[in-house]
Amino acid sequence: xxxxxxxxxxxxxxxxxxxxxxxxxxxxxxxxxxxxxxxxxxxxxxxxxxxxxxxxxxxxxxxxxxxxxxxxxxxxxxxxxxxxxxxxxxxxxxxxxxxxxxxxxxxxxxxxxxxxxxxxxxxxxxxxxxxxxxxxxxxxxxxxxxxxxxxxxxxxxxxxxxxxxxxxxxxxxxxxxxxxxxxxxxxxxxxxxxxxxxxxxxxxxxxxxxxxxxxxxxxxxxxxxxxxxxxxxxxxxxxxxxxxxxxxxxxxxxxxxxxxxxxxxxxxxxxxxxxxxxxxxxxxxxxxxxxxxxxxxxxxxxxxxxxxxxxxxxxxxxxxxxxxxxxxxxxxxxxxxxxxxxxxxxxxxxxxxxxxxxxxxxxxxxxxxxxxxxxxxxxxxxxxxxxxxxxxxxxxxxxxxxxxxxxxxxxxxxxxxxxxxxxxxxxxxxxxxxxxxxxxxxxxxxxxxxxxxxxxxxxxxxxxxxxxxxxxxxxxxxxxxxxxxxxxxxx
Length: 491
Hints:
The strands form 2 sheets. Strands 3-4-5-6 form a 4-stranded mixed β-sheet, covered by helices on one side. It has a two-stranded antiparallel ribbon with strand order 1-2. Helices cover 63% and strands 7% of the residues. Mean pLDDT is 87; it is low at 5-9. It has helices at 3-9, 13-37, 42-54, 74-84, 86-105, 117-139, 148-153, 155-163, 166-184, 197-212, 224-227, 233-236, 242-267, 277-293, 303-311, 318-333, 343-357, 360-369, 371-386, 389-408, 436-444, 464-478; strands at 67-68, 300-301, 411-416, 423-431, 452-462, 486-488. The chain has 491 residues and is an alpha/beta fold.
């Protein structure tokens, strides 16, 4: 079959082919960097990228969204591997995939769009802070503390240790140079910018390491087949522990929310078919199921790769499938190439990625327009840093629900007192226990020696707590020896 015949059957193949090369070049350093930062063999990051292209990429959902290992899950994966071991990671990812498949089949994908944006952005901000702090240690060739709070508080001491070591200074300098290259990449001539920034920065760092013989650590290469570890029956037994189940729930919530929010963002970048959220959730679930079976990293849809795919001119899902093919060919034919990549350069890539996860502009905009949402964002991020990922997300969700419940319980009490006759009180809105103190304070302030007519016809909702409290107040007021309180309802 000739190329012209093939392009006749696939009219957008030329554009998709070119876009797939760009996405491959963007994905390659990120797959490796996320894997190393997660504490797993570098090849497992490539495996997740390959599955994201060849499995998730073939499925329906979002046609131009690209999936693979994401910086947003790095901290959680690292903690899971540290706590339960690499053998259990595959079981956790596999269970996550099955849950996503089940949620997609139950058509729950659309409901992830109802998750507070402030919680999701707070989650990403918290992840970004912990990721940056952890990778700063990697840039210096030091071991990072376990908790997010310790990572931040121990940084000054780590910096003092690095200053006293020539090797650490060389490592920090290389990592800082990588970050600087990424920041300045957009200002370079257009011809240079055809190479993705992450790839260019890592390539420059690799060349500098080789040219100057810098004493820095490099990526350990085990080979693609040697890195794949199928889950054992013993590993499934870890799911009996509450902590492991909590990790599964955190993986499921974060991976699903990040993927579907990414889909909404990618839809705004092109005019093609819109995302089918339930099918996209099933596509992510299928990918994570396969990743779990192979013992690889969890996957999510990734905005950086997806945006690169759209901006490179991709028209169909063929581009993301082909990018998976190129990752597979690289992992199979050129695995030794990973061994020349300096670890501080990958740490620099992840520091830059972590910084982009912190929505500074969004925080400022929220503070001006919706301070409650800004507070939820900041508290979620701080909770993740201070406690853990799972608990931090739960705190954010609880705050969002509480804020919504508070705002939904607006109630208004109007009092008309003509100086003679009964006092008329009109209660309207939503009377819930959250506003009960305000309601009772206003009613108890009414004259005790006058009859009262209480009109409840304007209430949209009256919960049990408020109904009971109003009945008790009415009984107390009527016991004063005047006319009983007259209550009018909308029924």
